[in-house]
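User: Can you predict the 3D structure for this chain?
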Amino acid sequence: MTDSNEKQKMDSLEPGFKKMNAIIKQSTVIEEGIPTRYHLTTTDSHDQSEPYKKMTFGERDKTKPHKTILMVGETGTGKTKLINTMINYMLGVQREDKVWFEITDDQSDRTSVHSQTSITTVYGFYPQESKTDLTIIDTPGYGDTRGAEKDKEIAMNVLGLSKCDDCIQKLDAVCLVMKATQNRLSDRQMYIFDAVQSLFGSNIDENIVLLFTHSHGAVPKSALTAVKEAKIKCAVDDKNQPVYFQFDNCQGETFLPEYQMVQMQSWNLSFKEITGFFKFLDNIKSKTVKMTQNVLQQQMQLEAKISNIKSHPQKIDLKKKELKQTQKDLEQHKKVVEENKNFEYEVDVAYKDWVDIDTSVAYKAMCCTYCEENCHYPGCWWIRDLSWCGMMKDEHCTVCTYKCHYSKHVKEAKIYVIKTKKEKRTNEALKKKYDDNIIKVRDGESVVKKLEEELQELEKDKIKLVMDAFHCVDKLEMIALNTESLNTLLHVDFLIEKLKEINEPEKAEKLENIKKRSGEEKHRALEYINKHATINPSAR
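Assistant: Here is the predicted structure, written as C-alpha cells:
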C-alpha cells in the first residue's frame, strides 16, 4: 500500500481508534486477546543510593493541573490494578477500544510478600491526551513479613521524596486500599492503616479516601463497619459517612468471547467509580507535606530519646564505679604513696568500641565520630542527607555531647559500645594523681568532688531526656492526625515508669489517658508489632 493510501485509511478511522493507535506505538504487547494488554514505554530512573525509583510516561506540562496521590495497602489487595485503571481512565480508553494499557512494572505486580520489591515506586504520568498530569506514589508491602522496621523505612521514603522531587511537595489524596469483602481489620491491617495515618498532620484527614477492591457494586457494609470500629480517619460526605470508591479489578484481564458480559459489568462499575474518584481529586484542596515532615521528625526524636534513656543507666553505673574505685584507691594507697614505695596495681578502664549492629534490632545507626556516641539508634530510617535526620537542628545534632555538626556524623551498620578492660598502673601514676588531687583540694575542687559533680550531671541529663521524650509525645498530640499512634503507644509504658521515677505524676497520668483512649484494636495491633518487630537480614 502506498503512503497516500495509508494516509487515507488512517484519516478514515475513528478519532478514538487513531488516538489509541498513537498510544499503542508507545507500548509493547503483553498479551493478545480481548482486550489486548500493552505495557507503556516509560523513562525509568533509579539512583542505587535511594530506596525509590521513578517511572515516567510523557513530558510534564507545567501549565496543566497536577495531582499527587499516595497508594497504600496490604500486599494482594490490588493496588497495581488500581493504578492501571487510573491511567486507562486518563488516556480515555473505552471498552470498545479492546485495549488495556499498563504502566506498572512486573515486580510491582507480584503478590508474594517475600518477592515484592522493597522500594517505593513513583509513577509520573503525563499523557498529552489528559487534561491533568498525575504522580502516583506506590508504597511497597506495607505490613509485609519483613517486620515493622521496614514500614518505618517506607514512611521515611515519603519524607525523602518530598525533599528531592518538586512533584511531591503536596498530596491531593492518600488512598487506603482494602478488599470490599473485608468484614474485620486484622491486627496486621490495623497496623498498616495506623502506620499510614501516623505519617500525617491533623490537616490531611479530608484527603484520605477508601478504595475497595474485589467489589461487585453492592454497598460494602461489613468493610465500612470494620473501618469504623478501627477508628480509621478519612474524608466524610455530607451525611458524615466515609468517602469510598469501589472497583472490580478484572476489567483489564483478557476474556474469552463468551465471558464478555462479565467484563462489561466489571468495566462499567470500575469506570463509574474512577470517574467519581477523579471528581473528588478535582474538588479537594491539596495539602503540603510540611506538617508530615514535622510529624516524622517528632516521631524520630521520640525514638532517639527513648533509646538514649535506656542506655543512660550504663553511663551512670560506670561513673559510680569510677567514683567508688577512685575513693578506694586514694584511701588504700595514700600511705604507700606518701612513703614513695614501688608497687603496681590493676584498674578497670572504660573504653568505646565500634561494633557491628545486631540486625535483629536495626539496619543502621547514626553515630557521632567526634563524641563517639550513638545519636540515633535504633529507629534510624533511610535518609539521603544526614542533615535531614530528625536529630538535626540547624545542621547540628541535638543528641551528642558536643552537639556536633552533621558532617561529624556517619550512618553505618555499626554502633559504639562501652566496654571495660584491665589496665596496669604504677605508684608513680597514682602518686601524680594523688598529688594533683591534694593541689585541687586546696583549690576547693578534688577529683572525688569532680566525679560527684559529673554523676549529678548525668542524673540531670536523665531527667532532661525523659522530659524531652514526654514533650515529643505532647507535640505529636497537637500536630498529628493519629494522636494515639502505635509508634507512640509502643513507648508509653516505659515513659510512664520513667516519669514516675523523676516525680512527674501529672505527666505520667496524661500518658495513661492516651493509652486508655487507644482502644482494644490498637492493643491487638501492638501485639502484632512486637511479634514482627525483628528484621530479617535476608530481606535487605
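The longest helix spans residues 290-339. Confidence is low (pLDDT under 50) at residues 6-13, 107-117, 439-445, 534-540.
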